[in-house]
Design goal:
The complex is a heterodimer of chains A (753) and B (161).
Chain A: H1 4-22, H2 30-52, H3 55-63, H4 66-76, H5 86-108, H6 113-134, H7 142-171, H8 175-185, H9 187-221, H10 244-248, H11 252-255, H12 277-309, H13 316-323, H14 332-357, H15 362-400, H16 407-410, H17 412-432, H18 439-492, H19 517-554, E1 570-571, H20 574-589, H21 595-598, H22 602-624, E2 625-626, H23 639-662, H24 680-689, H25 692-701, H26 704-752
Parallel strand pairs in A: 1-2
Helix pairs in contact in A: 1-6, 2-4, 2-5, 2-6, 8-9, 8-14, 9-12, 9-20, 9-22, 12-23, 15-17, 15-18, 17-18, 18-19, 18-20, 19-22, 20-23
Chain B: H1 2-11, E1 27-28, H2 30-33, H3 37-40, H4 45-52, E2 60-61, H5 62-72, H6 78-89, H7 99-110, H8 116-130, H9 140-148, H10 153-156
The chains are: A mainly alpha (753), B mainly alpha (161).
InterPro entries (chain A): TMC, TMC_dom
Family (chain A): Belongs to the TMC family.
Biased composition (Basic and acidic residues) (chain A): 15-33, 46-63, 71-81
Chain lengths: 753, 161
C-alpha cells in the first residue's frame, strides 16, 4: 500500500536531507538536528504566512492556534545554532511535535487532493528556505537515514504480520469449507462442523498418546508375534485367521495384535530402555480420561468468559448494515459467499427480533408445554420398558442356546434399538411443535430428549457386556483347572524330578488359552463403532442423497411439485448428528476407559472415522440439503454441546471405574495378567522403582485422616470462587448499564441543539 | 504514485495521457472505473465512485482517483474513513441517512433476498438503535457514534491496491 500523503512528505524531507548532506557542517547529534529542523520550518512557515498572507495559510493558522504562540517566541529568540540552550531545544522539540500533529490533522481532513497539495507545497518551500539559512549549523543527516530505515522496517513488519495472520488462518484445517457452509446454512449447522473439528483435534491427541506410548513400544520392544501363547493365534483358529470376514469382525490376526489388550505382555520392563509397559498402559488409560475432562472443562470455561465480554449488541442491525461488507473482496465466489452470509446473518437477527416481540397467551403456552413434556415422558417410559423386556428375553434365549431361535429372536435387541432410534426422534420432533419455543431452545430440548432415549441404548449395551464378562470369568475358572491338568499330563512322560524338570518345548499355538474378557470388550466396542459409522453413512447416502436425486429428477414428470411439497430436500439434522458425535466420543473417551483401555486401536479408528465424516458430510450438506426455514444463530459458545459431552463422559466413567476396580484381570492375557487388581501396577511401581521414603510419603498422603480435610478444603475453595465470580458478573452488568446511560446523556444536549 | 498512475491509465488508455506534468483535465467515466478488480464485486461501487467525484456523477480525474484510494487504504485515519463512509451510504446526498437510504443499502447488501416486511423491520430497528436525536434520520454525529463502537469497521472498510 502506498499512503501518498505520507510519502509526499517523506519525499520532501528526503530532498532536504540530500541538500543538507551537501552542506556539511558542524556535527551535532541526530535529535538536535531534527528539533532544529522542525523548529526552523515552523518559524519559516509562520513568517511566510505573514509575508504571503494567503487565504490558505490563514485558514491553517485559524485552525491551529498554537502557531501564534510559536511565532511570538520566534521573534524574541535570536537563533544561533551553536548557542541553543536546553530550553530552546525544548521549544524546538515541541515545535517538531506540533509539526507532526499538523501533518496528522492534514491527513485526516477530507479536503480534495488539490487543497492538500497546495498546503504541502507551501510547507515544503518554507523548509527549503530554512535549510538555506541554517545550513552552516546542520551536520550530517545520519539520523534521518536511520529514521527512514526504521520506518521502512515498520512497514515491512506490518506486512509480515498481516501475511502471517493469513497463513495461520489458511493452516486451520477445513476452515474454508466451514466458512462456506456457514455462509449458506447459518451458524447452527456450521457449529456442528466446528464441533466435529474440535473432536478431531482431541482424538488426534489421544491417538498420539496411545500410539506413541502403548502401541509402538510393544510393537518395537516387546516380544514379537508368535513367541508366547497370548501373542499367537490358537491352532484351532489358525486356518481361518486370514479370512476377510474374520478380520472384518476383528478376530483372527487382528485380534492377536497390538490393536487389542490381549496381546500385551505383562513383563514389567521391556527392551533396552527398560520401558515399564504395564505402568505406561495404565497411566495412558487414566491420562486419556483426565485429558478429555480437562479439555472439555477448559473449553466450557473459555466459552463462558467470551460470552460475557463480546456481548455488546447495542447497534446490532446498524453494524450489520454498515460494517459487514468486506471491501477487500475481489473474487466473485467469495463475494457470493459473503452475500449469502450477510443475508443469513440478517435473517438470524430478524428471527431473534421477532421471537423477542412475540407475546402469546402465557397460560396456553405453559399448558401446551406441560402436555408436550408429559407425552415425551410417556414415550420414554414406554421405550425403556420395551428395552428392558427385550433384554430379559434375549438373556433367556442365550441361556437356551442361540441356535434354537430364529434370526429375529437372535438379533431382537439390536433391531429394537435401531427401530426406536429411528422413530422416536421423529415423534419428539412432532411433539415439540406444540411447544412453540425459540428454535435454539427447541433444539436443546430435542437433544436432551434424544439423549434420554439413548441412555436406554447404553443401559442395554452395558447389561449385555456385563453378562458376557461374567460368562467369560466362569469359563476362565474352568480353563485354569484344565490347564493344570494339561500341564501335569505333559510331564507325565518325562522324569519327574522335583526341581530340575527339563523344559518341554511346546508350540505356543497349542497351549490352551484362557478366554480374554478384556479383548472381548475391546472387540465389542470396535464393532459397535464400525457398525454405527456404517449406519450413519448409509442413512446419509440413502436418506439425503438418494432423496435429493429423486426429488430433482422425478420432479420433471410428477404431478405435484416435489421440491416445494413432500418430500422436498432434507434439512440438515443438527441434533441427530451432534448426538451421534457426542455418543461416539463418549464411547471412545471414557466409556472407553473401557474402550480405548481395552482396545488401544480405538482412537486411531476414531480419527479415521472423523476424517471421512468431515469430508462426506461437508459434501452432503452442500449438495443435498437446503438451509432450514428459520435460520437461527447458534449460541455462539456451544456450551450446551460441551455440557452434554461432560455428562456423557461422567456417565461413562462410572462403569469403567467399576470394572477396573472390582473385576480381576484375566490370568493369561494383557499387561496386568497375574495381578489381583489392575491398579496394583501402581503399587508395584512405587515399591520397586521409587526410593523408600517416597512410598512412605504416599502412604501418609493416602491416609483418610489427611484426604478428608483436603476434600473439605477444596469444596470451600469452590464455593468461594463461585461467589466471587458471581459478584464480578453483577458488577459487570452494572457498569454496562452506567455506560449506556452516560452515552445517552451525552447525546441529549446535541438533540437540543 | 507511478503505480496508481499506471492503474488509472489502464482503465482508459485512449483518454489518459502518459505525461501528467501540465495537469490535463481528463476525467474517466464511472462505467470504466467500476470495472477495476478492487471495486468490481463491491455492491457499493457506484456510490463510492460518485462520492469521490467532483461533479457527483462519478467522473473521476486523476486527483480524485488518488483521493479515493488514499482515503480507503489501510493507514488512512478512522475519522476520515467515517466521513467518507457516511457520504457513501447517503444515497440522496442530503447529509442525512434517511429510511430510504437504509432500504437501498440493505437491498444492495442482500441482493434483494429479504422480503419487504423483513426489510422494513431491519430499517426500523436500525433507525431505532442509532437515531439519538429522534428526527428519524441519521445525522453524521449519530453515524459516527455508532461506527466508533463497531469492532470491524476499520478492517472491513479498506481497499488494497
Amino acid at each position: 500500500t502506498t499512503f501518498l500523503l505520507g510519502e509526499e512528505i517523506e519525499v520532501s524531507t528526503f530532498q532536504e536531507e540530500r541538500e543538507r548532506e551537501r552542506h556539511r557542517a558542524k556535527r551535532s547529534d541526530s535529535d538536535r538536528e531534527r528539533r532544529k529542523r522542525g523548529n526552523g520550518r515552523r518559524k519559516r512557515a509562520s513568517r511566510a504566512e505573514e509575508g504571503k498572507g494567503e487565504s490558505q495559510a490563514r485558514h491553517d493558522r485559524r485552525e491551529k492556534g498554537r502557531r501564534k504562540r510559536t511565532r511570538q517566541d520566534n521573534e524574541e529568540v535570536e537563533v544561533r545554532p551553536e548557542s541553543l540552550s536546553s530550553e530552546e531545544l525544548e521549544k524546538l522539540k515541541e515545535a517538531v511535535d506540533e509539526r507532526k500533529k499538523l501533518i496528522q490533522v492534514l491527513r485526516g481532513k477530507p479536503w480534495p487532493m488539490k487543497k492538500k497539495c497546495v498546503t504541502l507545497w507551501i510547507l515544503k518551500k518554507e523548509s527549503q528556505e530554512f535549510v538555506e539559512k541554517y545550513e552552516g549549523a546542520l551536520g550530517k543527516g545520519k539520523g534521518r537515514k536511520l529514521y527512514a530505515y526504521k520506518v521502512m522496517m515498520t512497514k515491512k513488519w506490518m506486512k509480515f504480520q498481516r501475511d502471517f495472520e493469513n497463513f495461520k488462518t489458511a493452516c486451520i484445517p477445513w476452515e474454508m469449507k466451514i466458512k462456506e457452509i456457514e455462509s449458506h446454512f447459518g451458524s447452527s449447522v456450521a457449529s456442528y462442523f466446528i464441533f466435529l473439528r474440535w473432536m478431531y483435534g482431541i482424538n488426534m491427541i489421544l491417538f498420539c498418546l496411545t500410539f506413541g506410548l502403548v502401541m509402538v513400544p510393544e510393537a518395537l520392544m516387546g516380544r514379537p508375534y508368535g513367541t508366547i501363547p497370548r501373542k499367537t493365534v490358537p491352532r484351532a483358529e489358525a486356518t481361518s485367521a486370514m479370512d476377510f470376514a474374520v478380520l472384518w469382525d476383528f478376530g483372527g490376526y487382528a485380534q492377536y495384535s497390538v490393536l487389542f489388550y490381549g496381546y500385551y505382555n505383562n513383563q514389567r520392563a521391556i527392551g533396552w530402555l527398560k520401558f515399564r509397559m504395564p505402568l505406561s498402559y495404565f497411566l495412558v488409560g487414566v491420562g486419556t480420561v483426565a485429558y478429555s475432562y480437562m479439555v472439555v472443562i477448559r473449553t466450557m470455561a473459555r466459552n463462558a468468559n467470551e460470552s460475557g465480554v463480546g456481548d455488546d449488541n447495542s447497534f446490532n442491525f446498524n453494524w450489520k448494515m454498515f460494517t459487514s461488507w468486506d471491501y477487500l473482496i475481489g473474487n466473485p465466489e467469495t463475494a457470493d459467499n459473503k452475500f449469502a452470509s450477510i443475508t443469513t446473518s440478517f435473517k438470524e437477527a430478524i428471527l431473534e427480533e421477532q421471537e423477542s416481540r412475540k407475546d402469546d397467551n402465557i397460560h396456553l403456552t405453559r399448558f401446551l408445554r406441560v402436555l408436550a413434556n408429559f407425552l415425551v415422558l410417556c414415550c420414554l417410559a414406554g421405550s425403556g420398558y420395551l428395552i428392558y423386556f427385550v433384554v430379559r428375553r434375549s438373556q433367556k434365549f442365550a441361556l437356551d442356546g442361540l441356535e434354537n431361535h430364529s434370526w429375529w429372536e437372535r438379533n431382537e435387541v439390536n433391531m429394537v434399538m435401531s427401530l426406536l432410534g429411528m422413530f422416536c426422534p421423529m415423534l419428539f420432533d412432532v411433539i415439540s411443535a406444540l411447544e412453540n419455543y425459540h428454535p435454539r431452545v427447541a433444539l436443546q430440548w430435542q437433544l436432551g430428549r434424544i439423549f434420554a432415549l439413548f441412555l436406554g441404548n447404553l443401559y442395554t449395551f452395558i447389561i449385555a457386556l456385563m453378562d458376557e464378562i461374567n460368562l467369560k470369568r466362569e469359563e476362565e475358572k474352568i480353563i485354569k483347572f484344565n490347564i493344570t491338568t494339561w500341564e501335569a499330563s505333559l510331564y507325565n512322560g518325562t522324569v519327574s524330578e522335583n526341581s530340575t524338570a527339563p523344559p518341554v518345548t511346546i508350540q505356543p499355538a497349542d497351549v490352551p488359552r484362557g478366554p480374554c474378557w478384556e479383548t472381548m470388550v475391546g472387540q465389542e466396542f470396535v464393532r459397535l463403532i464400525i457398525s454405527d459409522t456404517m449406519t450413519t453413512y448409509i442413512t446419509l447416502l440413502i436418506g439425503d442423497f438418494l432423496r435429493a436425486v429423486l426429488v430433482r429428477f422425478l420432479n420433471y414428470c410428477w404431478c405435484w411439485d416435489l421440491e416445494a411439497g413432500f418430500p422436498s430436500y432434507s434439512e440438515f439434522d443438527v441434533s441427530g448428528n451432534v448426538l451421534g458425535l457426542i455418543f461416539n466420543q463418549g464411547m471412545i473417551c471414557t466409556f472407553s476407559q473401557m474402550g480405548a483401555f481395552y482396545a488401544p486401536c480405538l482412537p486411531a479408528l476414531n480419527i479415521l472415522r472423523l476424517h471421512v465424516s468431515m469430508y462426506l458430510q461437508c459434501w452432503a450438506v452442500m449438495c443435498c440439503n437446503v438451509p432450514q426455514e428459520r435460520v437461527f444463530k447458534a449460541s455462539g459458545s456451544n456450551n450446551f454441546y460441551m455440557a452434554m459431552l461432560l455428562v456423557i463422559l461422567f456417565l461413562s466413567t462410572l462403569p469403567a471405574i467399576y470394572t477396573i476396580v472390582t473385576i480381576p484381570p484375566s490370568f493369561d492375557c494383557g499387561p496386568f495378567s497375574g495381578k489381583q487388581h489392575m491398579f496394583d501396577v501402581i503399587q508395584e511401581t512405587l515399591e520397586l522403582d521409587f526410593p523408600a521414603w517416597f512410598g512412605k510419603v504416599f502412604s501418609y498422603a493416602s491416609n483418610p485422616g489427611l484426604v478428608l480435610p483436603f476434600i473439605l478444603l477444596m469444596v470451600l475453595a469452590i464455593y468461594y470462587l463461585q461467589s466471587t465470580s458471581k459478584s464480578y458478573k453483577e458488577a459487570n452488568v452494572e457498569l454496562k448499564k452506567k455506560l449506556q446511560t452516560v452515552t445517552q446523556i451525552s447525546f441529549s444536549p446535541l438533540a437540543l441543539m | 504514485m507511478k503505480l496508481l498512475h499506471g492503474r488509472y491509465r489502464e482503465l482508459a488508455p485512449h483518454l489518459v495521457p502518459l505525461d501528467y506534468t501540465n495537469n490535463p483535465d481528463i476525467r474517466v467515466p464511472p462505467t470504466l472505473i467500476v470495472t477495476m478488480p478492487e471495486l468490481k464485486e463491491n455492491p457499493f461501487r457506484d456510490r463510492i465512485v460518485e462520492t469521490f467525484s467532483e461533479d457527483g456523477h462519478g467522473n473521476l480525474s486523476f486527483n480524485d482517483f488518488v483521493d479515493m484510494f488514499s482515503a480507503l487504504c489501510e493507514t488512512s485515519p478512522r475519522e476520515l474513513k467515517t466521513i467518507y463512509a457516511f457520504k457513501i451510504y447517503d444515497f440522496n446526498r442530503d447529509n442525512f441517512i434517511c429510511k430510504e437510504d437504509l432500504k437501498k443499502t440493505l437491498n444492495k447488501l442482500t441482493k434483494g433476498e429479504l422480503s419487504p416486511e423483513e426489510v422494513l423491520l431491519v430499517c426500523d430497528k436500525s433507525m431505532e438503535e442509532a437515531d439519538l436525536d429522534g428526527d428519524s434520520k441519521l445525522s453524521f454525529s449519530d453515524f459516527e457514534n455508532m461506527v466508533s463502537k463497531a469492532p470491524d469497521f476499520l478492517s472491513n472498510f479498506h481497499v488494497r491496491i
